[in-house]
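Predict the holo structure. Ligand: flavin mononucleotide.
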Amino acid sequence: MKRRSCIKAGIVGLGVMAIAEKSKALEYYPKKSDKKWAVIYSTWCGSSRDAGVWISEGMGGIADVFDVRENPDPQKYDHIVVGGSIRSNAVSKEMQDYLAKNKAALKERIRGLFCVMGNMKRPVGPENDKQLIDGHLSKLTEVSGVPGKCFNGRITLSLLEPESYQMMSSMGMTDYDLMKRSDFMDFGKVILDSAKQQTPTAGKPSE
Ligand SMILES: Cc1cc2nc3c(=O)[nH]c(=O)nc-3n(C[C@H](O)[C@H](O)[C@H](O)COP(=O)(O)O)c2cc1C
């Protein structure tokens, strides 16, 4: 390779590396806040990823949003929202392990809990919150008395792994989407307001 094209290739390579570095963490923070917020979610096909981003947007976009598989360090945050999609009446094993491993640090930081579920396409209600927030996430985290809510989710058959695809198809399930962004954003506001009551500066924008 000629010297000039070699330098050119090097520059292009550095540019690609910079983009890769930038896009490594799923951190969305259009606005800064004087308290650090994180939303940590678990998902199979992305419902709870969108839920996490929308909850943060409802809070004015001040939270970093992490897939639990990124293993974020809870000690770096003042306030944390935890939630995930439901299969067989539970959040994923990865989320359960993460909650167990980080229980002490999370316990003093969790400000909200959420679940995204199918509920056989029926609208979710207080009985779902009782089962999956009080009876599941609150138990795993040992956190209660913070806003907690279940939301209807969605199915995208083409995103399912073969076993689940088989199962859902045999049940006659087709694609559906019952997620409403404004519901998640409203929940983000509820969480922020509740945290502000405990710590008035919890959502104060900073320079
Ligand atoms: C294999 C499988 C098992 C599921 N189990 C439940 C369940 O026990 N209760 C429920 O309400 N929804 C259940 N659902 C529906 C999902 O919770 C819902 O579709 C959710 O939005 C999927 O989240 P995801 O995009 O992270 O996969 C199940 C879906 C699949 C594919």
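The helical segments are 3-22, 47-58, 93-101, 103-107, 126-141, 162-170, 181-198. Residues 26-198 form a domain with the Rossmann fold fold (CATH 3.40.50.360).
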